[in-house]
Fold this protein.
Amino acid sequence: MGALSLCLGAQAALAQTFPIKDKPVTIVVPFTAGGPTDRLARDMAEALRKPLGVNSIVVENVLGAGGAIATQKVARAAPDGHTVLIHHIGMATMPALNRNPGFQVDTDFTFLGMIHEVPMTIVARPTLEANDYKQLSAWIGKNKDRVNLGNAGVGSASHLCGLLWQAAMKTELSTIPYKGVSMAIADLMGGQIDLLCDQTSNTMAYIESRKVKAYAVTSAKRLSQPALSTLPTMQELGVKGFQISIWHGAYGPKGMSDITQMKWNNAG
Ligand code: ASP
């Protein structure tokens, strides 16, 4: 009897191995739909469904607190491989910016891997009169009391880029926090805000279609994409040390089994 129940227990455990039949996978995104983190997650959902062997992958946008609410949700989820967070550099800056985000970045997660790294671009509303970075700096200097710089909340990539930029310019601008850069860029195109520093994966299409004006990239070297190749780097412009690229990674809750981690890694 004891042996039988042990055997049944082992079978039940095997049956629970990822993926659990008919249980969807949820990719949690800490920012609004349509932004770079969200688009990356949706591309992954599309690409990973078959290799993971699941019927559906749902992308859930859990907004607020610069990503802390989404991150906390994943920290508290079952570590069965069915709930995964896609987050970026904000995961690393969180402990410095938020004393009590409701989780421990270094101990509450299973790190599944790095996904990609993208530099950022300094962009402005299409009606802003400055045509190059020098003119932009002069314009900011003249108007600094009324210049608005958007971001995706405390600790977001756009927030960090904005902080570095303001420090480099030795200027403080008013910042407008959104719950994701898809909202910020919509307001930038509409002229409700003046400036944004955001990932090229988000800005490139808007730069190409001239819906926003672009002034500089934060990479070490110029970028090769036609829409971006004419943009100077911040280093070239003499803004020393201003070099940022933003990574995205995938995280499960702590305690994901080795086999579940391996399945995610092999699928990606
Ligand atoms: N990646 C953006 C940021 O951190 C947020 C987003 O994906 O909407 O600024």
Summary: The radius of gyration is 21 Å. Residues 1-15 have pLDDT under 50 and may be disordered.
